[in-house]
Design goal:
about 130 residues
């Protein structure tokens, strides 16, 4: 149930929908959202892009680097895969009358990992605020 290519077919990208009332993890195999926290992660990832606080949803793409353990270029593979998924988000938004812009997730990975309750293998790569 994934629509983007993935380096070595690792399918490392995890998608999180961040809203004012919490963060939801997209479970691709079941095509459903599962709430992981009540915290507004947008306040953590916004950085200088404070306009994202006005977006109804921010899609955060995280690479599970453990899926690349035997490769030297894990971070590069994860960044490529995040780019593919982000492009799909952009195309979907364009086709449905929504707006988005890909934004580099330049915050401390540890801060995001703490909120999401994931290991240090999960590296935030990019986010797309989505709205009108």
């Amino acid at each position: 149930k994934r629509t983007a290519p993935s380096a070595i077919n690792a399918q490392d990208i995890e998608l999180y929908a961040c809203k004012h009332d919490g963060v939801y993890h997209y479970i691709a195999s079941d095509n459903k959202l599962e709430k992981v926290t009540n915290k507004d992660l947008r306040t953590v990832i916004a950085g200088r892009n404070t306009y994202i606080m006005k977006a109804p949803v921010v899609i955060l793409l995280v690479s599970d680097q453990s899926k690349f353990k035997k490769f030297d270029k894990a971070a590069t593979f994860g960044a490529l895969d995040a780019g593919y998924v982000s492009q799909n988000i952009c195309l979907y938004c364009s086709a449905t009358g929504l707006n988005t812009v890909p934004c580099y997730c330049g915050v401390s990975p540890e801060a995001v990992q703490k909120v999401l309750g994931v290991s240090s293998d999960f590296i935030p790569m990019i986010y797309n605020p989505v709205g009108y």
